[in-house]
Design the sequence.
C-alpha cells in the first residue's frame, strides 16, 4: 500500500464530498509531522499498519491543516487501565488501530471506534473509545492522555465513566467494522499484487520547496522541534528567521493573518530537554523585553515535528449567544466586589500567560482579611486545609497529578500559602521563584489551576454567589 493509493481510499471513505485537494493537504501535513514517509524519494515506500493507522487518525479533524497534529496527539493516547485492559493488549490508540487492521478476526471483533475532540478554554482535549466483542462479551476501552497516570493503572477501567463528555460539546468521528474490513481488504490486495508506484509527483512539488526552506531554518533528518507561541509587542522579524543565542539556535516565526508570533527549537540538534529549552527561550524574551521595555509572554505549544512550524492563532472573541439574556444586580457588599475584581485579574493574567500574577490574583480572592497575632492559626491556611479535598474532587486527574508531584508531600495549606503565594509575591530567600525557569513555571501552572478552583469555590460558598446570567444567588 502506497500513500498515493491510500489517499484515494480514505478520501472515498471519509472525506467525500469534500474536494480531493483537501485530502492531499491532509497527507501533506501528515508527512510534515513525520506520520508518513516524507519526500519524493520515499513516495514508493510501502506503508506499514502503523502508518496507515496514522493516516486514518489524520481524518478526525475537520480542517486538513490539523491532520498531522491531531494524528500525533490521538496516536499517543493510552488505554485506561493499561495495556492489559486494551484491545489486543495494545498500549496506545495508534497501536490499537494498527492491531484492528492486522487481521480479519480483529476487524470482525470490532463494534465501533470513536475519536473525540473536546473543546475547552481555547484548547483541544483528545479522547477515544473502542467497543469490541471478546469471548462473547462486549467490552469498552477508553483512551486518555498519558499524563493521566492514575487512569493508566490496572483496574482503572472499572471505575472510569466511558460515556461521559467532560466539556459542553465535543466533535466525534465514529468508524465501524465495515470501514476497517474494507480498508484491510484494500491493504491486503495491494500487498499481494505488489504493483509499482504510478504518480505524476505533482503533490510533492510544493513539499520539495518547503523542504529546502526548512533546511535553511536548521531542520535535519533527526530533528524534533518544540513549537511555542509568543504574545509580545517587541520588534520581531518580518520573515522566518534563525537566531543564535547563548550557544543555541532557534527559529522565530512572525505574526501573519493566520499565525501568531512563535519560536521553534530543535531539541535534538540543540541537545536540550523541553524544560531547558523553555527556560532558554524565557531568558531570550526577558532580554528582548528589557531592550524594548515591552511585554513578551511564552505560551504553551507542542513538540514532535521534524520541521519548525508556525502556530495558528486561536480566536479570542468569546462565545456568541443566539439569544443573550442578562438579569444580575450589582452586589452591595464592597468586599465581594473587590474579590470579584481579583478573580477577573487572575483570569486576565492567566490568558496573558502571566502565571505568577494568576496565582496572586486567584489567591487574593479567598485570602482572609483578619490580621493574625502570630499565636492563632492563620485563617486562610485553615480554610484551604478544610476545603481542599472537596475542591480537588472537581479537578481532572492530570491537574491533580502535577499538583501533587509539585507539593511533594507538604501540607497543602502551607504549600499554597508559602510556596505559591509568598514565593510569587515577594523576593523571598526562603521561598524563591524564578519566573523564567521552565520547571518553576510548570509548577506554578499546576498551582494556578488548583488556586483558581479554590477561588471559585470560595465565591460560591462564602457568598452564595451564582455563576448564572439570570440569578444572583446559588440555590
Sequence:
Amino acid at each position: 500500500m502506497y500513500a498515493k493509493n491510500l489517499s484515494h481510499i480514505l478520501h472515498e471513505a471519509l472525506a467525500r464530498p469534500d474536494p480531493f485537494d483537501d485530502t492531499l493537504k491532509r497527507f501533506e501535513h501528515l508527512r510534515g509531522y513525520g506520520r508518513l514517509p516524507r519526500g519524493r524519494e520515499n513516495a514508493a515506500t510501502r506503508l506499514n499498519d502503523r502508518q496507515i493507522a496514522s493516516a486514518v487518525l489524520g481524518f478526525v479533524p475537520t480542517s486538513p491543516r490539523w491532520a498531522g497534529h491531531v494524528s500525533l496527539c490521538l496516536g499517543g493516547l493510552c488505554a485506561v487501565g493499561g495495556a492489559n485492559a486494551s484491545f489486543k493488549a495494545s498500549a496506545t490508540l495508534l497501536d490499537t488501530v494498527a492491531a484492528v487492521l492486522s487481521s480479519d478476526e480483529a476487524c470482525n471483533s470490532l463494534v465501533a471506534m470513536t475519536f473525540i475532540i473536546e473543546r475547552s478554554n481555547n484548547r483541544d482535549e483528545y479522547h477515544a473509545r473502542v467497543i469490541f466483542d471478546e469471548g462473547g462479551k462486549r467490552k469498552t476501552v477508553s483512551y486518555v492522555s498519558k499524563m493521566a497516570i492514575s487512569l493508566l493503572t490496572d483496574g482503572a477501567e472499572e471505575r472510569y465513566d466511558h460515556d461521559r463528555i467532560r466539556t459542553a460539546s465535543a466533535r466525534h468521528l465514529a468508524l465501524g467494522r465495515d470501514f476497517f474490513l474494507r480498508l484491510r481488504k484494500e491493504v491486503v490486495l495491494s500487498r499481494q499484487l505488489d504493483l509499482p508506484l504510478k504518480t505524476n509527483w505533482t503533490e510533492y512539488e510544493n513539499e520539495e520547496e518547503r523542504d529546502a526552506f526548512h533546511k535553511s531554518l536548521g531542520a535535519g533528518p533527526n530533528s524534533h522541534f518544540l513549537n511555542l507561541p509568543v504574545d509580545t509587542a517587541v520588534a520581531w522579524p518580518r520573515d522566518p528567521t534563525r537566531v543564535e543565542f547563548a550557544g543555541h539556535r532557534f527559529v522565530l516565526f512572525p505574526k501573519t493573518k493566520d499565525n501568531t508570533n512563535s519560536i521553534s527549537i530543535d531539541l535534538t540538534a540543540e541537545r536540550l530537554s523541553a524544560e531547558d529549552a523553555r527556560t532558554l527561550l524565557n531568558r531570550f524574551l526577558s532580554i528582548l523585553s528589557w531592550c524594548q521595555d515591552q511585554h513578551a509572554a511564552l505560551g504553551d505549544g507542542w513538540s514532535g515535528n521534524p520541521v519548525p512550524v508556525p502556530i495558528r492563532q486561536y480566536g479570542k472573541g468569546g462565545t456568541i449567544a443566539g439569544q443573550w439574556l442578562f438579569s444580575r444586580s450589582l452586589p452591595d457588599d464592597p468586599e465581594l466586589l473587590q474579590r470579584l475584581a481579583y478573580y477577573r485579574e487572575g483570569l486576565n493574567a492567566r490568558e496573558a500567560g502571566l502565571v505568577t500574577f494568576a496565582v496572586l490574583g486567584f489567591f487574593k480572592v479567598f485570602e482572609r482579611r483578619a490580621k493574625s497575632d502570630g499565636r492563632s492559626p492563620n485563617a486562610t491556611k485553615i480554610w484551604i486545609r478544610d476545603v481542599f479535598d472537596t475542591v480537588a474532587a472537581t479537578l481532572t486527574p492530570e491537574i491533580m497529578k502535577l499538583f501533587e508531584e509539585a507539593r511533594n508531600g507538604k501540607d497543602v495549606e502551607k504549600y499554597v500559602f508559602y510556596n505559591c503565594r509568598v514565593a510569587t509575591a515577594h523576593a523571598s530567600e526562603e521561598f524563591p521563584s524564578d519566573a523564567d525557569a521552565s520547571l518553576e513555571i510548570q509548577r506554578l501552572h499546576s498551582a494556578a489551576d488548583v488556586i483558581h478552583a479554590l477561588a471559585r469555590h470560595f465565591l460560591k460558598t462564602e457568598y452564595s454567589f451564582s455563576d448564572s446570567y439570570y440569578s444572583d444567588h446559588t440555590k
